[in-house]
């Protein structure tokens, strides 16, 4: 399965303009309906807007990726819109959005679909790829750019499990990224941390978490051998396992927009050590970053 298997000409719109972000999201949902994968359009829209209320899905680089997971989705799908003149989307970096992908996935997602969508997130870290899509003259060209880029970046047609990493030095960092749906911000944050860590010469292993599952889980040995931990998440993360480790705690969006700062803080001797105590609170993913609010208080000196 490829990204283009989730996207058709009927779910793409080229060269559109909108008055506001809600209008753009409505149009993207209309395009999604053309895939005949929504049993309840209003329920799906509700989930998309709930996710948008947590934090903007304008992830920077001129891209917005609104998304929703719901039982109303009968099969995963993508819709896409290019907005050459730009649209104010309350993006993380304040830039106007010129490319929008809407993702629909079922509540009980499968690994294959998550991996497909993580591929898209990884590809969208490349500004030249984004620019090509925005400048596409028609739907055929748009699909061709997607297909060509996916083949270039992922030469194997199958999927490989994440490589196990062994840690033994002071520059080893472990991280957890997560958003309530576990689709876009999760993987973009993980990819941003991995790319920047490689550039800075640090070893890193990133666990990704969604609403109901996790991938590339950190082992006891990973944690023991790590110098520090970055938790960039807007969803619940098991924290007690990180007791005694230097801990950098933030929202998932921060890992996308400023991975350098997080990595530099993680490697600093001045970073506070986590005492393992997490205040009891009923999980409320709809309100977002609950763990950030509470643990920030714990880490104050």
What report would you give on this structure?
Helix 3 crosses helix 6 (184-200) and helix 4 (127-134) runs antiparallel to helix 5 (139-153). The chain has helices at 21-33, 41-54, 111-123, 127-134, 139-153, 184-200, 220-225, 252-257, 259-266, 290-298; strands at residues 12-13, 58-60, 63-64, 67-69, 77-87, 97-105, 172-178, 203-209, 214-215, 228-233, 246-250. A hairpin with a 4-residue loop joins strand 8 and strand 9. The relative contact order is 0.12. By secondary structure, it is of the alpha/beta class. The strands form 2 sheets. Strands 1, 2, 3, 4, 5 and 6 form a 6-stranded mixed β-sheet that branches. Strands 9-8-7-10-11 form a 5-stranded mixed β-sheet, with helices on both faces. The chain starts with 11 loop residues before the first strand and ends with a helix. It is 36% helix and 19% strand. It is built from 10 helices and 11 strands.
Can I get a quick summary?
With 301 residues, this protein is α/β, with parallel strands linked by helices. It is 36% helix and 19% strand.
